[in-house]
Protein backbone atom coordinates (compact mmCIF):
# COMPACT_ATOMS: atom_id res chain seq x y z
CA UNK A 1 0.00 0.00 0.00
CA UNK A 2 1.36 3.45 -0.95
CA UNK A 3 1.43 6.49 1.32
CA UNK A 4 -1.29 8.01 -0.91
CA UNK A 5 -3.57 5.00 -0.28
CA UNK A 6 -3.00 5.32 3.47
CA UNK A 7 -3.77 9.05 3.35
CA UNK A 8 -6.93 8.34 1.34
CA UNK A 9 -8.09 5.73 3.85
CA UNK A 10 -7.59 8.18 6.72
CA UNK A 11 -9.39 11.00 4.86
CA UNK A 12 -12.35 8.70 4.22
CA UNK A 13 -12.44 7.69 7.89
CA UNK A 14 -12.72 11.36 8.93
CA UNK A 15 -15.97 11.72 6.98
CA UNK A 16 -17.60 8.80 8.88
CA UNK A 17 -19.83 7.92 5.93
CA UNK A 18 -18.80 4.34 5.08
CA UNK A 19 -20.95 1.59 6.59
CA UNK A 20 -23.75 3.96 7.58
CA UNK A 21 -27.27 4.46 6.16
CA UNK A 22 -27.34 6.94 3.24
CA UNK A 23 -27.45 10.56 4.42
CA UNK A 24 -30.56 12.43 3.17
CA UNK A 25 -28.42 15.21 1.67
CA UNK A 26 -26.25 12.74 -0.21
CA UNK A 27 -29.30 10.78 -1.34
CA UNK A 28 -30.83 13.99 -2.67
CA UNK A 29 -27.69 14.82 -4.67
CA UNK A 30 -27.48 11.38 -6.25
CA UNK A 31 -31.14 11.54 -7.27
CA UNK A 32 -30.54 14.98 -8.76
CA UNK A 33 -27.55 13.63 -10.72
CA UNK A 34 -29.66 10.88 -12.28
CA UNK A 35 -32.41 13.34 -13.21
CA UNK A 36 -29.96 15.90 -14.63
CA UNK A 37 -28.19 13.33 -16.81
CA UNK A 38 -31.38 11.56 -17.89
CA UNK A 39 -30.35 8.11 -16.68
CA UNK A 40 -32.08 5.63 -14.35
CA UNK A 41 -29.09 4.98 -12.07
CA UNK A 42 -26.58 7.08 -10.15
CA UNK A 43 -24.32 6.42 -7.19
CA UNK A 44 -21.80 8.03 -4.85
CA UNK A 45 -18.80 5.71 -4.65
CA UNK A 46 -16.19 6.00 -1.90
CA UNK A 47 -13.04 4.08 -2.84
CA UNK A 48 -10.36 3.07 -0.33
CA UNK A 49 -7.32 0.82 -0.78
CA UNK A 50 -9.45 -2.35 -0.84
CA UNK A 51 -13.09 -1.67 -1.65
CA UNK A 52 -15.65 0.50 -3.38
CA UNK A 53 -18.40 1.60 -0.99
CA UNK A 54 -21.67 2.79 -2.52
CA UNK A 55 -22.84 5.25 0.15
CA UNK A 56 -25.91 6.58 -1.68
CA UNK A 57 -27.63 5.31 -4.83
CA UNK A 58 -30.73 5.61 -6.98
CA UNK A 59 -32.05 2.84 -9.23
CA UNK A 60 -30.54 0.02 -7.19
CA UNK A 61 -29.55 -0.90 -3.62
CA UNK A 62 -26.10 0.39 -2.59
CA UNK A 63 -23.50 -2.29 -1.91
CA UNK A 64 -19.76 -2.91 -1.52
CA UNK A 65 -17.42 -4.46 -4.07
CA UNK A 66 -13.68 -5.02 -4.33
CA UNK A 67 -11.59 -2.19 -5.73
CA UNK A 68 -10.42 -4.54 -8.50
CA UNK A 69 -14.01 -4.91 -9.75
CA UNK A 70 -14.80 -1.20 -9.61
CA UNK A 71 -15.09 0.79 -12.83
CA UNK A 72 -14.63 4.07 -10.96
CA UNK A 73 -11.38 2.85 -9.35
CA UNK A 74 -9.81 2.92 -12.83
CA UNK A 75 -10.40 6.66 -13.30
CA UNK A 76 -11.17 8.40 -10.00
CA UNK A 77 -7.60 9.57 -9.39
CA UNK A 78 -7.50 11.38 -12.75
CA UNK A 79 -8.77 14.97 -12.88
CA UNK A 80 -11.91 15.84 -14.83
CA UNK A 81 -14.82 13.88 -16.21
CA UNK A 82 -14.93 10.41 -17.61
CA UNK A 83 -17.71 9.89 -20.17
CA UNK A 84 -18.00 6.60 -22.07
CA UNK A 85 -20.81 6.17 -24.58
CA UNK A 86 -20.39 2.36 -24.74
CA UNK A 87 -18.22 0.70 -22.08
CA UNK A 88 -18.29 -2.56 -24.08
CA UNK A 89 -16.02 -0.88 -26.64
CA UNK A 90 -13.65 0.79 -24.17
CA UNK A 91 -10.39 -1.05 -23.38
CA UNK A 92 -10.49 0.16 -19.78
CA UNK A 93 -13.89 -1.37 -19.07
CA UNK A 94 -14.80 -4.03 -21.61
CA UNK A 95 -13.70 -6.91 -19.31
CA UNK A 96 -15.10 -5.37 -16.13
CA UNK A 97 -17.74 -7.51 -14.34
CA UNK A 98 -20.06 -4.48 -14.18
CA UNK A 99 -19.99 -4.46 -18.00
CA UNK A 100 -19.84 -8.15 -18.89
CA UNK A 101 -23.01 -9.08 -17.04
CA UNK A 102 -21.26 -10.88 -14.21
CA UNK A 103 -22.35 -8.10 -11.82
CA UNK A 104 -24.31 -5.70 -14.03
CA UNK A 105 -24.75 -4.67 -17.67
CA UNK A 106 -23.38 -1.15 -17.74
CA UNK A 107 -23.13 0.37 -21.21
CA UNK A 108 -23.19 4.17 -20.83
CA UNK A 109 -20.92 5.37 -18.02
CA UNK A 110 -19.99 8.83 -16.74
CA UNK A 111 -18.31 9.92 -13.51
CA UNK A 112 -16.85 12.98 -11.82
CA UNK A 113 -14.19 12.57 -9.08
CA UNK A 114 -14.77 13.49 -5.45
CA UNK A 115 -11.69 15.41 -4.29
CA UNK A 116 -11.20 16.67 -0.74
CA UNK A 117 -10.00 20.24 -0.03
CA UNK A 118 -6.58 18.71 0.70
CA UNK A 119 -6.48 17.34 -2.87
CA UNK A 120 -7.13 13.69 -2.00
CA UNK A 121 -9.46 11.87 -4.44
CA UNK A 122 -11.78 9.62 -2.43
CA UNK A 123 -14.27 8.38 -5.01
CA UNK A 124 -16.79 9.48 -7.65
CA UNK A 125 -20.27 10.67 -8.39
CA UNK A 126 -21.24 8.22 -11.12
CA UNK A 127 -24.20 7.88 -13.51
CA UNK A 128 -24.82 4.94 -15.85
CA UNK A 129 -27.33 3.13 -18.03
CA UNK A 130 -27.78 -0.21 -19.79
CA UNK A 131 -27.92 1.51 -23.17
CA UNK A 132 -25.57 3.87 -24.97
CA UNK A 133 -25.69 7.54 -24.10
CA UNK A 134 -23.89 10.88 -23.97
CA UNK A 135 -23.78 14.03 -21.85
CA UNK A 136 -24.26 17.53 -23.16
CA UNK A 137 -21.86 20.25 -22.07
CA UNK A 138 -24.48 21.53 -19.64
CA UNK A 139 -25.02 18.05 -18.18
CA UNK A 140 -21.25 17.59 -17.77
CA UNK A 141 -20.94 20.90 -15.93
CA UNK A 142 -23.90 19.96 -13.76
CA UNK A 143 -22.38 16.59 -12.85
CA UNK A 144 -19.11 18.28 -11.88
CA UNK A 145 -20.99 20.82 -9.75
CA UNK A 146 -22.91 18.06 -7.98
CA UNK A 147 -19.65 16.19 -7.29
CA UNK A 148 -18.29 19.33 -5.61
CA UNK A 149 -21.47 19.59 -3.58
CA UNK A 150 -21.07 15.97 -2.41
CA UNK A 151 -17.66 16.89 -0.99
CA UNK A 152 -19.12 20.09 0.51
CA UNK A 153 -21.74 18.02 2.35
CA UNK A 154 -19.06 15.64 3.68
CA UNK A 155 -16.88 18.57 4.77
CA UNK A 156 -19.79 20.30 6.47
CA UNK A 157 -20.59 17.16 8.45
CA UNK A 158 -16.93 16.80 9.49
CA UNK A 159 -16.54 20.46 10.49
CA UNK A 160 -19.78 20.39 12.46
CA UNK A 161 -18.50 17.43 14.50
CA UNK A 162 -15.18 19.20 15.11
CA UNK A 163 -16.84 22.46 16.16
CA UNK A 164 -18.84 20.54 18.71
CA UNK A 165 -15.56 19.62 20.36
CA UNK A 166 -13.70 22.92 19.86
CA UNK A 167 -14.77 24.70 23.06
CA UNK A 168 -13.61 21.79 25.21
CA UNK A 169 -10.38 21.59 23.20
CA UNK A 170 -9.58 25.25 23.82
CA UNK A 171 -10.38 24.93 27.51
CA UNK A 172 -8.00 21.98 27.81
CA UNK A 173 -5.08 23.44 25.86
CA UNK A 174 -3.29 24.80 28.93
CA UNK A 175 -3.49 21.31 30.43
CA UNK A 176 -1.98 19.85 27.28
CA UNK A 177 0.98 22.22 27.35
CA UNK A 178 1.68 21.56 31.04
CA UNK A 179 1.48 17.82 30.40
CA UNK A 180 4.00 18.11 27.56
CA UNK A 181 6.39 20.05 29.77
CA UNK A 182 6.22 17.57 32.66
CA UNK A 183 8.83 15.18 31.25
CA UNK A 184 11.67 17.69 30.58
CA UNK A 185 10.95 19.34 33.92
CA UNK A 186 11.26 15.98 35.68
CA UNK A 187 14.53 15.32 33.88
CA UNK A 188 15.83 18.76 34.85
CA UNK A 189 14.95 18.26 38.51
CA UNK A 190 16.66 14.89 38.56
CA UNK A 191 19.90 16.16 37.02
CA UNK A 192 20.04 19.15 39.37
CA UNK A 193 19.44 16.90 42.38
CA UNK A 194 22.29 14.69 41.23
CA UNK A 195 24.53 17.73 40.90
CA UNK A 196 23.59 18.96 44.38
CA UNK A 197 24.55 15.61 45.88
CA UNK A 198 27.97 15.64 44.19
CA UNK A 199 30.51 17.63 46.26
CA UNK A 200 32.76 19.63 43.94
CA UNK A 201 36.01 18.56 45.56
CA UNK A 202 35.08 14.87 45.61
CA UNK A 203 33.22 14.30 42.36
CA UNK A 204 33.66 17.38 40.18
CA UNK A 205 33.39 15.54 36.81
CA UNK A 206 30.08 13.98 37.82
CA UNK A 207 28.68 17.35 38.96
CA UNK A 208 29.83 19.07 35.78
CA UNK A 209 28.21 16.38 33.61
CA UNK A 210 24.95 16.56 35.53
CA UNK A 211 24.83 20.35 35.31
CA UNK A 212 25.56 20.19 31.59
CA UNK A 213 22.66 17.81 31.03
CA UNK A 214 20.42 20.06 33.14
CA UNK A 215 21.37 23.05 31.03
CA UNK A 216 20.56 21.15 27.83
CA UNK A 217 17.19 20.04 29.22
CA UNK A 218 16.42 23.64 30.20
CA UNK A 219 17.19 24.87 26.68
CA UNK A 220 14.95 22.21 25.15
CA UNK A 221 12.16 23.11 27.58
CA UNK A 222 12.39 26.80 26.69
CA UNK A 223 12.17 26.03 22.99
CA UNK A 224 9.24 23.71 23.60
CA UNK A 225 7.34 26.39 25.56
CA UNK A 226 7.98 29.10 22.98
CA UNK A 227 7.10 27.03 19.92
CA UNK A 228 4.04 25.29 21.39
CA UNK A 229 2.55 28.56 22.58
CA UNK A 230 3.30 30.18 19.20
CA UNK A 231 1.59 27.25 17.49
CA UNK A 232 -1.43 27.73 19.75
CA UNK A 233 -1.87 31.40 18.83
CA UNK A 234 -4.31 32.26 16.08
CA UNK A 235 -2.40 32.21 12.82
CA UNK A 236 0.58 30.45 14.36
CA UNK A 237 2.22 28.02 11.94
CA UNK A 238 4.90 25.37 12.48
CA UNK A 239 8.26 25.93 10.84
CA UNK A 240 9.34 23.60 8.05
CA UNK A 241 13.04 22.82 7.76
CA UNK A 242 15.21 19.67 7.65
CA UNK A 243 15.07 17.81 10.96
CA UNK A 244 17.26 14.82 11.83
CA UNK A 245 14.88 12.47 13.63
CA UNK A 246 17.83 10.53 15.04
CA UNK A 247 18.94 13.66 16.91
CA UNK A 248 15.39 14.35 18.05
CA UNK A 249 14.96 10.84 19.44
CA UNK A 250 18.36 11.06 21.15
CA UNK A 251 17.21 14.23 22.97
CA UNK A 252 13.92 12.60 23.92
CA UNK A 253 15.64 9.50 25.29
CA UNK A 254 17.95 11.73 27.29
CA UNK A 255 14.95 13.48 28.86
CA UNK A 256 13.29 10.13 29.53
CA UNK A 257 16.42 8.69 31.16
CA UNK A 258 14.84 8.56 34.62
CA UNK A 259 11.70 6.81 33.29
CA UNK A 260 13.77 4.29 31.32
CA UNK A 261 15.93 3.53 34.38
CA UNK A 262 12.95 3.27 36.75
CA UNK A 263 11.11 0.79 34.53
CA UNK A 264 14.15 -1.20 33.41
CA UNK A 265 12.99 -0.66 29.83
CA UNK A 266 14.59 -2.17 26.76
CA UNK A 267 14.68 0.52 24.05
CA UNK A 268 15.67 -0.15 20.42
CA UNK A 269 15.76 2.54 17.69
CA UNK A 270 16.05 2.09 13.92
CA UNK A 271 18.21 4.43 11.83
CA UNK A 272 15.99 7.46 11.28
CA UNK A 273 15.80 9.89 8.32
CA UNK A 274 16.07 13.63 7.96
CA UNK A 275 12.54 14.93 7.36
CA UNK A 276 11.02 18.36 6.67
CA UNK A 277 9.24 19.69 9.73
CA UNK A 278 9.32 21.68 12.94
CA UNK A 279 12.04 20.32 15.28
CA UNK A 280 10.29 21.32 18.50
CA UNK A 281 6.90 19.97 17.47
CA UNK A 282 8.47 16.72 16.25
CA UNK A 283 10.27 16.43 19.56
CA UNK A 284 7.02 16.97 21.49
CA UNK A 285 5.39 14.33 19.28
CA UNK A 286 8.06 11.68 19.84
CA UNK A 287 8.32 12.52 23.54
CA UNK A 288 4.60 11.80 23.95
CA UNK A 289 4.75 8.57 21.97
CA UNK A 290 7.83 7.19 23.73
CA UNK A 291 6.63 8.25 27.17
CA UNK A 292 3.28 6.52 26.60
CA UNK A 293 4.97 3.39 25.28
CA UNK A 294 7.20 3.19 28.36
CA UNK A 295 4.29 3.90 30.71
CA UNK A 296 1.90 1.31 29.33
CA UNK A 297 4.61 -1.24 28.61
CA UNK A 298 5.53 -1.06 32.31
CA UNK A 299 1.95 -1.71 33.45
CA UNK A 300 1.81 -4.42 36.07
CA UNK A 301 5.41 -3.89 37.13
CA UNK A 302 6.97 -5.43 34.02
CA UNK A 303 10.11 -4.10 32.34
CA UNK A 304 8.75 -2.72 29.05
CA UNK A 305 10.09 -3.33 25.59
CA UNK A 306 9.86 -0.34 23.25
CA UNK A 307 11.01 -0.09 19.64
CA UNK A 308 11.15 2.89 17.27
CA UNK A 309 10.90 1.66 13.68
CA UNK A 310 10.95 3.56 10.38
CA UNK A 311 9.70 2.44 6.95
CA UNK A 312 10.45 4.41 3.81
CA UNK A 313 7.35 4.70 1.63
CA UNK A 314 6.63 6.12 -1.78
CA UNK A 315 6.32 9.82 -0.94
CA UNK A 316 7.47 9.82 2.67
CA UNK A 317 8.12 7.79 5.80
CA UNK A 318 6.16 5.85 8.39
CA UNK A 319 7.63 6.08 11.90
CA UNK A 320 6.28 3.49 14.35
CA UNK A 321 6.60 3.41 18.15
CA UNK A 322 5.95 -0.19 19.23
CA UNK A 323 5.36 -1.43 22.78
CA UNK A 324 4.46 -4.66 24.56
CA UNK A 325 1.77 -3.14 26.81
CA UNK A 326 -2.00 -3.81 26.90
CA UNK A 327 -2.61 -2.22 23.49
CA UNK A 328 -5.72 -0.35 22.31
CA UNK A 329 -8.81 -2.27 21.08
CA UNK A 330 -9.53 -1.64 17.39
CA UNK A 331 -12.94 -0.09 18.12
CA UNK A 332 -11.30 2.56 20.34
CA UNK A 333 -8.30 3.52 18.20
CA UNK A 334 -9.83 6.66 16.76
CA UNK A 335 -11.59 7.75 19.97
CA UNK A 336 -8.41 7.79 22.07
CA UNK A 337 -7.08 10.68 19.97
CA UNK A 338 -9.79 12.90 21.52
CA UNK A 339 -8.97 15.05 24.51
CA UNK A 340 -9.08 13.16 27.81
CA UNK A 341 -10.07 9.92 26.09
CA UNK A 342 -8.45 6.63 27.05
CA UNK A 343 -8.70 3.06 25.90
CA UNK A 344 -10.81 0.66 27.95
CA UNK A 345 -7.86 -0.85 29.81
CA UNK A 346 -6.55 2.59 30.72
CA UNK A 347 -9.96 4.02 31.64
CA UNK A 348 -10.59 1.38 34.30
CA UNK A 349 -8.28 2.09 37.24
CA UNK A 350 -8.72 -1.47 38.48
CA UNK A 351 -7.95 -3.07 35.12
CA UNK A 352 -4.71 -4.95 34.66
CA UNK A 353 -2.21 -2.67 33.00
CA UNK A 354 -4.15 0.51 33.77
CA UNK A 355 -2.32 3.84 33.54
CA UNK A 356 -3.18 7.53 33.23
CA UNK A 357 -2.46 10.15 30.62
CA UNK A 358 -2.97 8.50 27.23
CA UNK A 359 -5.76 10.80 26.02
CA UNK A 360 -4.07 14.19 26.41
CA UNK A 361 -0.79 12.99 24.88
CA UNK A 362 -2.38 11.50 21.76
CA UNK A 363 -4.62 14.54 21.30
CA UNK A 364 -1.49 16.70 21.19
CA UNK A 365 0.16 14.24 18.82
CA UNK A 366 -2.71 14.36 16.33
CA UNK A 367 -2.64 18.17 16.30
CA UNK A 368 1.09 18.22 15.66
CA UNK A 369 1.02 15.58 12.93
CA UNK A 370 -1.86 17.24 11.06
CA UNK A 371 -0.12 20.63 11.30
CA UNK A 372 2.88 19.02 9.57
CA UNK A 373 0.69 17.60 6.78
CA UNK A 374 0.88 14.02 8.04
CA UNK A 375 -1.33 11.31 9.51
CA UNK A 376 -1.31 9.33 12.75
CA UNK A 377 -3.00 6.10 13.79
CA UNK A 378 -2.79 2.97 15.94
CA UNK A 379 -2.39 -0.67 14.97
CA UNK A 380 -1.58 -3.82 16.90
CA UNK A 381 2.14 -4.16 17.52
CA UNK A 382 4.16 -7.29 16.71
CA UNK A 383 5.37 -6.96 20.31
CA UNK A 384 1.81 -7.57 21.50
CA UNK A 385 0.88 -4.02 22.54
CA UNK A 386 0.20 -0.84 20.57
CA UNK A 387 1.92 0.35 17.41
CA UNK A 388 1.40 4.09 17.07
CA UNK A 389 2.37 5.12 13.55
CA UNK A 390 3.01 8.52 12.01
CA UNK A 391 3.12 9.22 8.28
CA UNK A 392 5.46 12.09 7.41
CA UNK A 393 5.47 13.35 3.79
CA UNK A 394 8.67 14.18 1.98
CA UNK A 395 9.39 17.61 0.51
CA UNK A 396 7.02 20.49 1.17
CA UNK A 397 3.81 18.71 0.30
CA UNK A 398 1.09 17.31 2.52
CA UNK A 399 -0.29 13.82 2.00
CA UNK A 400 -2.16 14.17 -1.30
CA UNK A 401 -2.70 11.62 -4.02
CA UNK A 402 -0.57 11.57 -7.13
UniProtKB/TrEMBL annotation:
InterPro entries: BphY/WalK/GraS-like (IPR050351), GAF (IPR003018), GAF-like_dom_sf (IPR029016), HATPase_C_sf (IPR036890), HATPase_dom (IPR003594), His_kinase_dom (IPR005467), HisK_dim/P_dom (IPR003661), HisK_dim/P_sf (IPR036097)
EC annotation from Swiss-Prot or TrEMBL: 2.7.13.3
Cellular localisation: Cell membrane
Name of the top EC class for this enzyme: transferase
Histidine kinase domain ranges (all copies): 176-396
Domain of life: Bacteria
PROSITE patterns: HIS_KIN
Pfam families per UniProt: GAF, HATPase_c, HisKA
Reaction equation(s) it catalyzes: ATP + protein L-histidine = ADP + protein N-phospho-L-histidine
This protein's name: Sensor-like histidine kinase SenX3
Species this chain originates from: Agrococcus terreus
Lineage: Bacteria, Bacillati, Actinomycetota, Actinomycetes, Micrococcales
